[in-house]
Amino acid sequence: MGEPGREEYKIQCFDAETQQLLKTALKDPGAVDLEKVANLIVDHSLQDSVFSKEAGRMCYAIIQAESKQAGQSVFRRGLLNRLQQEYQTREQLRARSLQGWVCYVTFICNIFDYLRVRLALPGVTSHCPLQVDCLVLQLHRVGEQLEKMNRQRMDELFVLIRDGFLLPTGLSSLAQLLLLEIIEFRAAGWKTTPAAHKYYYSEVSD
């Protein structure tokens, strides 16, 4: 798996029993209830933004270990089923906890990044700058890959992003700047020119 220290660090936030369960899942997946493991990882990812950024790597390691050991995909199936359930109640999640919503989107993007699964990413259309920042961050990370998979959906998303930037939606100046930056980032082939980086990120930090 590589980088064992990082793997150990990721699970230190769990209690001792759960840490042991996750360690076993990573080394001997057939010895544990993998659906339970999938639910534990998703539950914690919705609460911990740091863990949600790294959980995709852990999930990938468990899936690889299970496939190598038994040629099965119990964990992957359980994980995707749970994420589909969360997606179906995404509006309630967003209303209940903005932080949980950001963690969910981050986790979905990390799962996509590692597993290349075809999950529908929910649009982030709220006026909250944190949600706009989350959307822009994940588009920087996997936007180009998503566009290659479905250009039409990406075009539709960017129509909404342009509307959010151009129309009087009540967005803050920072949120509008972030939207403009991602519009130009995509237009430049999902790359940031040195001049654009200096302009946008000096603006954001001012």
TrEMBL record:
Q: Which GO terms describe its molecular function?
A: RNA binding; translation activator activity
Listed A to Z, the keywords are:
Cytoplasm, Nucleus, Translation regulation
Q: Which SUPFAM superfamilies match?
A: ARM repeat (SSF48371)
Which residue numbers delimit the MIF4G domain? 9-187
The record's section on Pfam families has: MIF4G
Name the InterPro entries on file.
ARM-type_fold, MIF4G-like_typ-3, mRNA_TranslReg/HistoneTransl
Q: Which residues form the signal peptide?
A: none
TM region positions:
none
The task this protein performs is described as: Functions in replication-dependent translation of histone mRNAs which differ from other eukaryotic mRNAs in that they do not end with a poly-A tail but a stem-loop. May participate in circularizing those mRNAs specifically enhancing their translation.
The similarity annotation says:
Belongs to the MIF4GD family.
Name the record gives this protein: MIF4G domain containing
Give the lineage. Eukaryota, Metazoa, Chordata, Craniata, Vertebrata
Gene symbol?
MIF4GD
